[in-house]
């Protein structure tokens, strides 16, 4: 996880511990997640294509690494659909650290 600052990391760590003890409900913990963690920015279709091409892999291979269909990767690259959730996090990770980070 990447935090906005060391102070946010400390606050999130304490809140997470309290959540595990059952003292902070899940809904409240989601608020801490949004407040403390660096948000994942949406990616444009050309950015997704650039990430894949930088890694020198086909859409099929890229889809395999991301655990999605090659049709979905194609849709992202053509701007028909937009990645979200875990797929967006994985794409961002590959963008910053390379495909080996998720291999």
From TrEMBL:
GO MF annotation terms: DNA binding
Domain HTH cro/C1-type span(s) in chain numbering: 48-91
Entry keyword annotation includes Transcription regulation: yes
Keywords: DNA-binding, Transcription, Transcription regulation
Pfam families per the UniProt record, alphabetical: HTH_3 (PF01381)
Stored CDD domains: HTH_XRE
Listed PROSITE patterns: HTH_CROC1
Superkingdom of source: Bacteria
PANTHER family for the chain: ANTITOXIN HIGA-2 (PTHR36511:SF3), MERR FAMILY BACTERIAL REGULATORY PROTEIN (PTHR36511)
Name by which UniProt lists this protein: Transcriptional regulator
């Amino acid at each position: 996880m990447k935090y906005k600052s060391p102070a946010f990391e400390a606050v999130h760590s304490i809140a997470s511990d309290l959540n595990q003890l059952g003292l902070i409900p899940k809904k409240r913990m989601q608020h801490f997640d949004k407040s403390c963690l660096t948000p994942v920015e949406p990616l444009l279709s050309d950015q997704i294509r650039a990430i894949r091409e930088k890694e020198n892999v086909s859409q099929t291979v890229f889809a395999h690494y991301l655990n999605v269909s090659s049709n979905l990767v194609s849709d992202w690259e053509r701007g028909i659909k937009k990645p979200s959730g875990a797929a967006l996090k994985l794409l961002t990770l590959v963008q910053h650290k390379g495909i080996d980070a998720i291999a």
